[in-house]
Structure formats: C-alpha cells, structure tokens
C-alpha cells in the first residue's frame, strides 16, 4: 500500500501545479538586456495584428518571474477572446499590477511576434497561415508574416529590454 501511495505522489503533485497557481509553462523564456530598477512584472495584453494595442485590451497580470535568473514561465488564458496578444515585461512604476502605456512605464521592446487565439480555427485549419489557423494558440511572426508554431508550449520566447 505504501508503494502505491508513493507512486501516486509525483503524478498528483505535477497534475496539481496549475490548480495551485503554478504556471503550466505554456510560454517560457528569458528577458535579456540591462534590467531597469523597480518591480518587474509580465503582462499579456490584447493587440491588433499590426502591432498596435487595441483601445480596450484585456490584460492579464502574470507575476511569475525569477529576476535573478531573468527567466519566466506563464500559462496562457484558457478561453480568451479570439484575437492577437502580446507578452511583455515592464516596470510597475505605479504599483497597480498593470502595464500602463499612458504612464510611460518602461517595458521590453516588441518581439515582432503575436500570440493569436482562435477558438474554432480558420479556413482549412491547417496552421499554414492566418487564413488557416488551427484551433487554439498560434505564435505568429509579424515581421516574417508567417506562422511560427501552432499549439503550446512556446519555449525560449526571448524578451529584450
């Protein structure tokens, strides 16, 4: 009986990670460059495909960041609105746990990429381009105008100050 219980501990512990607030690591990577002083946070916010933030963008505060190692791991929202999203790091100068572009808070530069969410997928659902997205999350290169990867996890996603 003890052997069975001990064998169950590891899978149950791993399965409970997202339930306990530990991210699933849907997106993970590092933040390079000279880190500014202040409280560093991560945000996942809505944007248009051209790279400009939509006027009323949903923003998800992501507190999982190891400043010593400059590494992060985040879980993507499970059922967001269809659209494009940007992951960024910023200095939370006013302490409200939100990136405020109007307050000129220091943030990482654009990666030239967007996370596209499509609940049903588009077109043939082949994942070849924006007109044929697979259902779920897609990493899309705005610079190269191509799908980089369909489906999480998205690893080694580098942000730069």
UniProtKB/TrEMBL annotation:
<feature type="signal peptide">
    <location>
        <begin position="1"/>
        <end position="21"/>
    </location>
</feature>
<protein>
    <recommendedName>
        <fullName>Lipoprotein</fullName>
    </recommendedName>
</protein>
<keyword id="KW-0732">Signal</keyword>
């Amino acid at each position: 009986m003890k052997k069975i219980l001990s064998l169950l501990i590891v899978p149950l512990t791993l399965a409970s990670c997202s339930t306990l607030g530990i991210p699933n690591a849907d997106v993970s990577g590092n933040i390079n460059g000279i880190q500014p002083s202040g409280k560093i946070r991560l945000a996942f916010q809505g944007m248009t495909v051209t790279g400009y933030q939509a006027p009323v963008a949903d923003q998800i505060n992501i507190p999982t960041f190891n400043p010593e190692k400059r590494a992060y791991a985040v879980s993507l929202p499970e059922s967001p609105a269809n659209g494009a999203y940007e992951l960024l790091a910023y200095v939370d100068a006013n302490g409200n746990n939100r990136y405020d572009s109007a307050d000129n808070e220091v943030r990482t530069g654009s990666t030239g990429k967007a996370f596209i969410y499509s609940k049903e997928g588009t077109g043939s659902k082949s994942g070849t381009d924006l007109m044929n997205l697979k259902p779920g999350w897609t990493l899309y290169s705005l610079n190269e105008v191509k799908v980089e990867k369909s489906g999480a996890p998205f690893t080694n996603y580098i942000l730069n100050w």
